[in-house]
Amino acid sequence: MTTTSPSPRRERQTKIVATLGPSSSDPKIIRALFDAGADVFRLNFSHGTHDDHRKRVDIIRAIERETNRPITILADMQGPKLRVGTFADKAIDLKIGQSFRFDLDPAPGSTSRVQLPHPEIFAALKNGSELLCDDGKVRMRVDSCGKDFAEMTVLAGQKLSDRKGVNVPDVVLPLSSLTPKDRIDLSVALDLGADWIALSFVQRPEDIVEARAIIGKRTAILAKLEKPAAVANLSAILDLSDGVMVARGDLGVEMRPEDVPLIQRQILREARRAGKPVIVATQMLESMISAPTPTRAEASDVAAAVFGGADAIMLSAETASGQYPIETVEMMNRIASRVQEDASYTGSLAAMNLPLQHTGADAITAAAKQVAETMDAVAIATYTTSGSTTLRASRERPQIPIICLTSKIETARRLTLSFGVHAVYTKDVTDFGEMVDKAAHIALRDGIAQVGQMIVVTAGVPFGMSGNTNTLRLTVVEK
Predict the structure, then answer these.
(1) Catalytically annotated residue among 164, 224, 227, 438
(2) Which of 145, 274, 429, 460 is placed for a possible disulfide with 435 were both Cys, Cβ 3.0 to 4.6 Å?
(3) For this structure, is 83 an active site residue?
(4) Of these residues, 10, 12, 15, 42, which one is catalytic?
(5) Residue pLDDT, tens place only, 300-338
(6) Is the pTM of this model over 0.90?
(7) Is residue 101 flagged as an active site residue?
(8) Is 427 labeled as catalytic in the residue annotation?
(9) CA–CA dist 47, 66 (Å, integer)
(10) Catalytic residue among 83, 101, 181, 408
(11) Which CATH number does the domain 15-79+176-343 belong to among 3.90.1150.10, 1.10.10.10, 3.20.20.60, 3.40.390.10?
């Protein structure tokens, strides 16, 4: 990071995650995505080579140096991919009510059977269980099963073709969320300095424990909630992870569509209660993969996530492989910014305020928000090493920027994902007075405050003790 003046700060509180891919690998395109509003760049390890991801990281870090703004890199692991085998004729037609068999035989499939090369699935099936194929387009019920077969009845669907995906919504599969491929990808992502690791196929708290044993404290863990079992274990998963993602595409396959909006609200509420950032993802502006404008329903969907208090909203194929990656980020930025201007936005977030923990740190953080509102302060400044002080402030969802001052670039990058946080990597300070002066200077420099306006400053004194927020000061910005 340089010491030059930073690029203009974001006015928007909800952050934008843009996935990089074939449509967005050029340095000029990635810089344009950042300028359009992308705060976080997602590297999808389901696609591309390690060299592709390495080049993208180099581009992102170059932009970071040019703009003097911390940029978050999210490395998304593929996780287990459950698929049927192949058919002799590439595809078959199905009829509702017909019998069909899955087994371990690698021979090409027919109209009556096909390989399912996952003994773990057979081990977990029970009579009455359902299997979903091709993103739920085909639905079958288990009539009888054993360790290497399952006799099924087709309940819905007309066609099944080679290598289509399989979902088993009503059972916990005895599978680790980290495949051998993921372990290699994870090592590469850590070496590249990814700020967050997203874990796919999380079902149980043990999946987070397994990943933590490998990752340690090197980076933050984001649990992707895409399985009903993960939702059932939400509290324990939140306790063990650093953040979560509402992966609505997979949730929508394995759960009833009408339940997904309610699950999204539940996750947003519980993640905020835990003080952990949450990303809402999948199909947000999907029509913009091939069209320059979204549907009105998609605009409403993005707005609902912002009204719901999401820390970040994510674009996937829209920016990775779509025809309008820059326009898509600009559109998401416009929608989120417009929601933030609405008179009902503040009330929507306030309605979700949660009880404080009985700690001095929570009391100081809540007081900072109240003092800021009472005195018309224009920012809350936090000084943090681990990030806990800033995350606590973000949890309160103030309607003014949260300036995060930290001497650790890794902390600044990680916190850029969080709601309302304006992260600043700066030299360490030796006492609270110096920190207050620096916070006021940065607020003025970055256009957050003008001379004569007030900011609220919180920190833990003495410095260096994580989670020790115990000091608050109201200060006037001077030249």
Answers:
(1) 224
(2) 429
(3) yes
(4) 42
(5) 999 999 999 999 999 999 999 999 999 999 999 999 999
(6) yes
(7) no
(8) no
(9) 28
(10) 83
(11) 3.20.20.60
